[in-house]
Amino acid sequence: MTTTELSWIATTLTAARPRAVAALLRYFRDLDTAEEGFQEAGLRALRHWPEHGPPDDPLAWLILVGRNAALDELRRRDRHDPLPEADDGDADMALDPDLAEQLDQSHYRDDVLRLLFVCCHPALPLAQQIALALRIVSGLSVPEIARAFLVGERAMEQRITRAKQRVAAAGLPFDAPGARERGERLAAVGAVVYLLFNEGYAASGGTAHVRVALCEEAIRLARLLCDLFPDEPETTGLCALLLLQHARADARLDAAGMVVLLEDQDRTRWHRAAIDEGLALLDAALRRRRVGPYQLQAAIAATHARAARAADTDWAEIDRLYAGLEKLQPSPVVTLNRAVAVAKVRGPEAALAMVDTLAVPLSAYFHFHGLRGGLLMQLGRADKARRAFADALALARTAAEAAHIRLLLDRLGAGASSDSLQAKDARCSIPS
């Protein structure tokens, strides 16, 4: 199997997973069975597609093969004896359009949002709602979810396990909630969409620095939320934020896969249509005069988007917006990002003082050490900068992050000057 084939199949599986798992859950009404069915379908795709070519409808193929695999496993458990191995060569024979319609009468292609609302049931603590949705709906790994929450992997594994157990014990319904219930669960669903985008925007592991399929799925879901809740400014602000961030996608890496910081990006490669849509949505949200964290983050992204050149960026406005975000949603990551603006407005010494207060909560956070190293570099403190970059390198999550830090270490070794490494907040309020 070629690298190109593997890459295409991996991208297809990532894009299809939310809708496939949603359809399988509707069919089996059991979280583990739906997950296991999709995983088996993915393994069969890896074996079948390179030899026989992709099916006309990969999503339908995965749903139906996953369903059949799960049914076989359930029958095997009931009989306590093994079934014959599936013949992957005949997998396409199952793709009867009538059967696909029978499997999911509610248009499985748009079924993910329903599943998100199901996972975000108020009987679960909020942290469990979000973690469960990210695992079941989005297919993020436990380490990826743990890094999104800045907690240990074991703790996150336990959190997800407890959520599944609670769902099973309580017999929570897997039916779509009504309008009132959707409104009550909106905040949790929005948080899931936000974190899903973040994982795509700055991958927490693997070889890919950006996972475009996750970003696009998050934007699709955000648009659906806007349709469901047109009068909710934070939902509109969330959609605006994701569009403005994703508009920079093509400029964030160079041809060699190296990270390109915001101030160095070719702004002609930013997607103007996405920027225009995001700005319009942000303006609509702000007119309602109920400002929330998503709107403030979108306003920060909009300030960057409106600057024709890096030199035109209104860093004082960005500092002001981050100060407002700190009040609404206090977080060490928010403060870290504000430090980038402070460095531009008041200099690296003032920014470093802010960053140093975050050493305990962000000790295991790549971008803390990267920004600190960059500020020390600006101040000419090469030895301390080198140690900070070494800490960042040990925490790098992707090859692009590691390569960027190595470049800065090389510059330090050569005694060359460099601009600061900007904080790159995976929570998507970042200038990159």
What does this structure look like?
- The protein is mostly helical and 432 residues long.
- The protein has 19 helices and no strands.
- Helix 15 runs antiparallel to helix 16 and helix 17 packs antiparallel against helix 18.
- The longest helix is centred in the first third of the chain and has 26 residues.
- The radius of gyration is 23 Å and the shape is globular.
Largest sheet: none
Number of helices: 19
- The beta-strand count equals 0
Q: Calculate the terminal CA-CA distance, rounded to whole Å.
A: 35 Å
The residue ranges in which pLDDT falls below 50 over 5 or more consecutive positions are 81-109, 416-431
Please sum up the structure shown.
The protein has 19 helices and no strands. With 432 residues, the protein is mostly helical.
Layout of strands and helices, then pairs:
Layout (H helix, E strand, L loop, with lengths): L2 H26 L2 H22 L5 H22 L17 H7 L8 H8 L6 H11 L5 H8 L3 H18 L8 H23 L10 H17 L4 H14 L25 H15 L6 H14 L8 H14 L3 H15 L1 H9 L9 H13 L3 H14 L3 H15 L19
